[in-house]
Amino acid sequence: DIQMTQSPSSLPASVGDSVTITCRASENIFSYLNWYQQKPGKAPRLLIYAASNLESGVPSRFSGGGSNTHFTLTIGGLQPEDFGTYYCQHSYYFGQGTHLEI
Amino acid sequence: EVQLVESGGGLVQPGGSLRLSCAASGFTLSNYWIHWVRQVPGKGLVWVARIKSDGFSTTYADSVKGRFTISRDNAENTLYLQMNSLRVEDTAVYYCARDKGSSTPLDTWGQGALVTVSS
After folding, report:
1. How close, in Å, is residue B96 to chain A by CA atoms?
2. End-to-end CA separation in angstroms for chain B
């Protein structure tokens, strides 16, 4: 099985900050990596697909990068509504989540 | 509006059965792969199963293989997850989600259905 490892697990930040979350895959997954945001009591929301493609309706302050085994999600200019938990995903495998605390 | 709505969650005793429904609107289920993902409250996302657009090809996580079955009713535009021999560790919120493409991005999710397995 492929292991998806996110870091950090918890990320305190302030409004206006730029933050980066990292996701590492245990083997080469090319660019088959997606990112989600989840808020308490809500379903996840797709942010980025295929490593770097912004999902329709997602603000442009979200960006994704990387390939093979190392991927990043960057949020430039944090807004209060960006708090929540972020997950990376490849196929049937999810990272353990990064809790972003504003 | 593209939407998925789950129903059928509830409390069931260990060893019991439950069937979740996932009703689609705004699109045709049979044109997409659909996944079930579950989440223990306060914990992370765990993939459970998926059905391809052909309606026949299914894949399950090892933890539910042989106990859970996905099926689809094209006329009703509804997907089902039949859960048998339920265990305490199956307690979770279950989401159905639409797969939109080659990197398995899940672009539309239901609101979730809570399944509690307890005596």
Report:
1. 10
2. 40
The residue of chain A with its CA nearest to that of B106 is A46
DSSP B88: G
Min Cα–Cα distance to chain B from A81, Å: 19
Q: What sign does the CA torsion over A81, A86, A88, A91 have?
A: negative
Q: Residue B88, Cβ neighbours under 10 Å: how many?
A: 11
Best mutation target among A37, A58, A92, A98 (most B Cβ atoms within 10 Å) is A92
The sign of the dihedral angle between the CA atoms of A90, A91, A94, A99 is: positive
pLDDT tens digits in sequence order for chain B, 119 residues long: 999 999 999 999 999 999 999 999 999 999 999 999 999 999 999 999 999 998 889 999 999 999 999 999 999 999 999 999 999 999 999 999 999 987 889 999 999 999 999 99
B46 Cβ neighbours under 8 A, 6+ residues apart: A94, B37, B38, B39, B40, B61, B92
Q: Check CB contact under 8 Å for B103 and A44.
A: no
